[in-house]
Automatic annotation (TrEMBL):
<feature type="region of interest" description="Disordered">
    <location>
        <begin position="100"/>
        <end position="141"/>
    </location>
</feature>
<feature type="domain" description="Mandelate racemase/muconate lactonizing enzyme N-terminal">
    <location>
        <begin position="32"/>
        <end position="99"/>
    </location>
</feature>
<protein>
    <recommendedName>
        <fullName>Mandelate racemase/muconate lactonizing enzyme N-terminal domain-containing protein</fullName>
    </recommendedName>
</protein>
<dbReference type="InterPro" id="IPR013341">
    <property type="entry name" value="Mandelate_racemase_N_dom"/>
</dbReference>
<dbReference type="Pfam" id="PF02746">
    <property type="entry name" value="MR_MLE_N"/>
</dbReference>
<dbReference type="InterPro" id="IPR029017">
    <property type="entry name" value="Enolase-like_N"/>
</dbReference>
Length: 141
């Protein structure tokens, strides 16, 4: 572990988040899906890869491709440079950043749900299979 000091000046013991990479995938469904109001033949997965100390983990959610812009433009500055292990502090910073940006809507998708799904190097990220099952390959949007 490295010792770093986040922007708030509080020393932490975990490695600093080095970068976020955001990708959007359109995942076709095996069969058309639907409910009483809508039908669909694909879903959209927003994948966020977070790197700290040379290790990359991921978080994902299903939602609009606009969610990727929220991560890049609103949330990344609240996470990059911060302690990778201090998830409660990251959650607080992201929640505050989204307060006036539509926290209950699109912004909440990846910002507050997606970050809960870390994956270490022993479980490599496989966006082509996340949620796809035997369906055709996922395609980047």
């Amino acid at each position: 572990m490295t010792r770093n000091t986040p922007r708030d000046g509080t020393p932490r013991d975990g490695p600093a988040v080095e970068r976020l990479t955001v990708s959007v995938y359109r995942i076709p469904t095996d069969l058309p899906g639907g409910d009483a109001t809508l039908t669909w033949d694909a879903t959209t997965l927003v994948l966020v890869e977070v790197t700290a100390a040379g290790v990359t983990g991921l978080g994902y959610t299903y939602g609009s491709p606009a969610t990727a812009a929220v991560v890049e433009q609103t949330l990344s500055d609240r996470v990059v440079g911060q302690d990778a292990f201090d998830v409660p502090a990251a959650n607080d910073r992201m929640s505050r950043a989204l307060r006036n940006a539509g926290r209950p809507g699109t912004a909440a998708g990846v910002g507050l749900r997606g970050r809960h799904r870390p994956v270490g190097p022993e479980t490599p990220a496989r966006p082509g299979r996340a949620g796809c099952g035997p369906s055709p390959p996922c395609t980047p949007c």
